[in-house]
Each structure stands twice: as C-alpha cells, then as structure tokens.
Amino acid sequence: MLPKLSIITIVYNNVKDIERTMLSVLNQTYGNIEYIVIDGASTDGTLAIIKKYEGRLAKLVSEKDKGIYDAMNKGLALATGDYVLFMNSGDEIYDQSTVERVFATAPNADIYYGETEMYDENWQSLGRRRHQAPETFTWRSFKYGMSISHQAIYIKRSLTTPYDLSYKYSADIDWIIKIAKKASSIVNTHLYVAKYLVGGMSKKKHRESLKERFQIFSRYYGFVPNLINHVVIAFNLVFFYLRYRRTND
Asked: What is the pTM of this model?
C-alpha cells in the first residue's frame, strides 16, 4: 500500500501565490495525499481562493495564530499521514510526478530529501540553491548552513515533535536536526523536489534569523566549532556572490 503523505500549507495574506502552491499539491499523480491548509485568518482574499478547492482538502483551518511555527504546529497536530511535508504558500512541489518519484526511490525510509530550485517574485528561476543538498545527510550536515530546504524534506511523522516556539525565525532548522538525530534511514532521492520563492520571513528578518541560527548551531555543534564553521560559511557566501551576484540561500 502507498504510504500516506500529509502535505501542510501555511498561509497568511498571500492571495498572489496561494493558488499556485495549492495546485502543485492537488495535481500530484501520487494517490495517497492528505492535504491540510492552515490560514492565519487572511483578509486579502486568500481564504476565498482556498475555499475554491475546499472539497479536495482533508482539513482547512482559518484562525489567528502566534506566528508561522505556531501555525505549522497546528498542521502537524492535524496530520494523520505516515509522512509529512510542509509546502508553504509561494513554494511548489517541483512537478506533478514528484511525490510519486520520491517514494519510488526506496521503501520505508525515515527521511527522503532532494534538491531545490529558487525563484524570484516574478517566478523566474534563479537556479539551484547555493547550499546544495549533501550526497549523504546526517544531523551534522547543517554545520555549514541549511543544506536542505524545508520544502525538500519528507519526514516520517512518528519521528516529529512540535516546533520549538522559542525560535521565531529558524525553528525549522532545530526541528530538522532533532529529527535527523533520531533517523536511521535517510534517502537522497537525487531529484529536484521543490521550487522555493525567495524572500520569506527568515529573509525579511535576516539579522534576527542569523542570530537564531548561530544559537541553534552552537547548541548542536559546539560554540567554538560553530565559530570556525561560520568563517567557512562567510567565505562560501562571498565567493558565490562574487561569481553570480546573488546569494541563492
């Protein structure tokens, strides 16, 4: 039997992008998807677009929340699938057969992951992320940056815990590291699995996000090793920018 995948979309006042994201989920060829949409009580017409597809959703919640990770926790609490995937408003599953091909790579893995293509606000491709997905992923793989984007990782739900709400901008990094420490089977699909719209909350609150990331990395990897690793991160960022004139986080 096909494993059940719970896909969770978080949205607040994003009438421009929500339909594109939803259709990337609803048009998947994979036959066992539970689609959950958590809306933060949008007031710009977003909810009207979501309700066009309400009959194809497993669950729809529209209410105020305490921020993106609180909303993601609501979605996680409602999920009943064997696996979970967060595909937030503005992002897309790479193509219509992506989910099917992900699960065809290996049976019953704890984590499946792949590559991400970046897009600008006009939905023009910026190419692959600067942080390329590692050939082999472990909980230590983030020491030089978040090498797998949140939209590109399929996680066995039994390994998940709620997001730590003490982090406002980088709780997803902490969440993935915690899960990876528990995982025994992690599969690189060697596929592009997600399209990511640049300019999310961590980009808008870049300084605050970087502070949180440093705290998280120091917690897991040690303060002094993290300082050294950040010299490497800074060098890689400068080299990439000088070559391409963009960062492609």
From this structure: 0.90
